[in-house]
């Protein structure tokens, strides 16, 4: 998820969940958590413990239980798949991979979230091909959206 953080505000705006970097309704924060899950996994359902990072990125405490549900429309699916194809095209080091390959190899990762006083720290699970991160055209070491409570500092040892 952290690799594509730069696209999150644009995606949430196109899904009509935010306007001018502000959620347009309280329930839209929860919906955003679920849409981000779909973006990363391709699945509409998730166990609550799998959503901690998404909650933090949407300005929700990680222990908050998500009560909203979503049904991804064909148009929304096309939007998200198009976003992921754009990521693949902008990162030539990973080749001409598929959306599922991007999800499985780069976006779906185990990690450890640690709550520090003024920030979250995320340590991402390392994989053998992570050396290609050096050639990623994306910034992901610090993530802070206007609606977040505190930033996420990402440690990805590649």
What's the quick description here?
The chain is an alpha+beta fold and 158 residues long. The protein is 35% helix and 13% strand.
Describe this structure in words.
The longest helix has 17 residues, at 74-90. This protein has one domain. Helices cover 35% and strands 13% of the residues. It is globular. It has helices at residues 8-14, 26-41, 52-57, 74-90, 99-107; strands spanning 18-19, 22-23, 111-115, 120-124, 142-143, 152-155. The protein has 158 residues and is an alpha+beta fold. A 4-stranded mixed sheet has the order 3-4-6-5. A two-stranded antiparallel ribbon has the order 1-2. The two termini are 16 Å apart.
Question: What would the keywords be for this entry?
Answer:
four-stranded mixed sheet, 5 helices, 158 residues, single chain, two-stranded antiparallel ribbon, globular, alpha+beta
